[in-house]
Design a protein that fits this description.
The chain is α+β, with helices and mostly antiparallel strands. The protein contains 11 helices and 6 strands. Strands 1, 2, 3, 4, 5 and 6 form a 6-stranded antiparallel sheet that branches. Helix 8 packs parallel to helix 10. The longest helix is centred in the N-terminal third of the chain and has 26 residues. The termini are far apart. 24% of the residues are buried.
């Protein structure tokens, strides 16, 4: 081998990184990656939100930190009570009906350091709970204090729908309450809204072949309006599908009786 070739080989060997250098570069890469993960976690990994308990009419905010993308929680969840004066008043005055259920928490809203956010259906009710009137007072707290007899009809119905996660039907009850003056008339209208809501859910359950649960909701509708035609019809159909012919026939007989009564 010529001297020039040996010199070239020695030069190549001198430029090759040592094991220590390679380890150092690897550690630097790991540290840089860790720094990126930490910064991303601090900026994008902060999760916060609010929850509502329909079984206790309480609210709380929560916060924790997670690693973005991996969704790995790296901090404990902290919670703080944010229950408003209206909710406290309803519980204190026992205007929500009997409640022996364990607390259940439904999402109101949640967001992170990144773009976008998430809203739960409980936000529908909480929007009403937080609404303020022209005088700067909590609107439905003022209404409840001024209309105790009407409140005893409306709030248990609202709590019942919320407890069944049927928040989308709650606005109908607030609409009724806003214009109500007579408690007997209000009770009739509330029962109609409740029955109509349960029939809607029953039909939706039938559409996904869950007739057993559909029967439950049609039956709930009939507790509010025993002669509700759509509820009886829907329940008879579900009973038929489930093979409970006697129950289906009983509902059909009831429908025939109602038809005769209506025509007479």
């Amino acid at each position: 081998m010529s001297q020039a070739a040996r010199a070239t080989n020695r030069g190549a060997r001198k430029t090759k990184p040592s094991i220590g250098t390679r380890i150092g570069i690897g550690l630097l890469g790991v540290l840089l990656l860790a720094a990126v993960v930490i910064l991303a976690t601090l900026y994008f990994g902060k999760i916060g939100g609010e929850e509502f308990s329909p079984t206790r009419f309480q609210r709380r905010v929560f916060a924790y930190v997670e690693i973005p993308l991996l969704k790995v929680q790296v901090s404990p969840i902290s919670r703080s009570d944010t229950t408003g004066d209206l909710e406290k008043y309803l519980v204190t005055k026992k205007l929500l009906g009997t409640n022996t259920k364990e607390p259940r928490w439904d999402l109101v809203w949640a967001n992170s350091g990144g773009p976008g956010g998430q809203h739960g259906e409980a936000r529908i009710l909480c929007t009403y709970l937080d609404s303020v009137n022209d005088e700067g007072k909590i609107a439905w707290l003022a209404w409840t204090e001024d209309n105790t007899d009407l409140a005893k009809i409306v709030w248990p119905a609202i709590a019942k729908l919320a407890g069944q996660e049927l928040y989308s039907f709650v606005p109908d009850l607030f609409v009724l309450a806003r214009s109500a003056t007579d408690k007997e008339e209000l009770q009739r209208e509330v029962d109609l809204v409740m029955a109509r809501s349960y029939v809607f859910v029953g039909r939706a359950l039938q559409a996904v072949d869950n007739d057993e649960k559909a029967v439950v909701f049609f039956s709930k509708a009939l507790t509010h309006q025993p002669g509700h035609i759509d509820a009886l019809t829907g329940r008879a159909e579900s009973y038929q599908t489930l093979g409970d012919i006697p129950s289906a026939d009983a509902d059909r007989i009831r429908l025939q009786v109602l038809s005769v009564e209506e025509s007479s």
